[in-house]
């Protein structure tokens, strides 16, 4: 049912030519479009429109995922990337913290020195930056562009101060997801269980968690709060929210990603 609806709307919205270009079937509001054929079933659309005389990209809205350290953001995102590898791309942040065992430079983070980070900030390379648990973190413009140039939905895993900076700017216009832990006690149990933090780092993260939860669960600050008590349920809630939002954007012809459809077929039919 869902598959048919989605495909039906795609066919109506786009006429895709075999040489990789296309003409919009019914919409003329975009100054230019192009379609990239990625595989037999997957087409990614990037559209550009003119707003106030400037060319701005009308791509899929990025997804920002936020929540206290240990609330389960990375765990949920891992599942999302596994299920939809062609649809979502991770914005690789910069950080001055040391890599954990298994973390790779350029994949999990760009691990840099404080001097390198400060120099990049001065050069205006970041969309947002924050200090968290004694370390610097930041989303570079390049990190987001790298994902967007692949035609994927850009996913940012960032803390609250970064979210506030993005909210206060007209950059990105992301969907905002807050991952809420069951309780501070359970958060501590999960963080300790992860065995990545020193006692000092753990205490800093727990101290910050209370205010993060207060902000994150206050009405209007996020588009959705995903309650991560049970991982399976939390992932289903996150996935449902995202799929609904992408379908809504697709309905508005902001963009379209058929790889979601492919994945639905694989996973749900
Ligand atoms: N619903 C859950 N039930 C039990 N354990 C969970 C659940 N969700 C995540 N965890 C575990 O909690 C720990 C913290 O999760 P995760 O690393 O995903 O948190 P995070 O929000 O990404 O933290 P950080 O911001 O520090 O990167 C991990 O060991 C993970 O396996
Ligand atoms: N404001 C930003 N916050 C970021 C960024 N990258 C990660 N983070 C957040 O930092 C904490 C700690 O992460 P950890 O990997 O050290 O456990 C966590 O809340 C992340 O969401 C960023 O670029 N900007």
Automatic annotation (TrEMBL):
Reaction catalyzed: GMP + ATP = GDP + ADP
InterPro entries: GK/Ca_channel_bsu (IPR008145), Guanylate_kin-like_dom (IPR008144), Guanylate_kinase (IPR017665), Guanylate_kinase_CS (IPR020590), P-loop_NTPase (IPR027417)
Official protein name in the record: Guanylate kinase
Pfam families noted in UniProt: Guanylate_kin
Keyword Ribosomal protein: no
Domain of life: Eukaryota
Principal location: cytoplasm
Species this chain originates from: Anopheles dirus
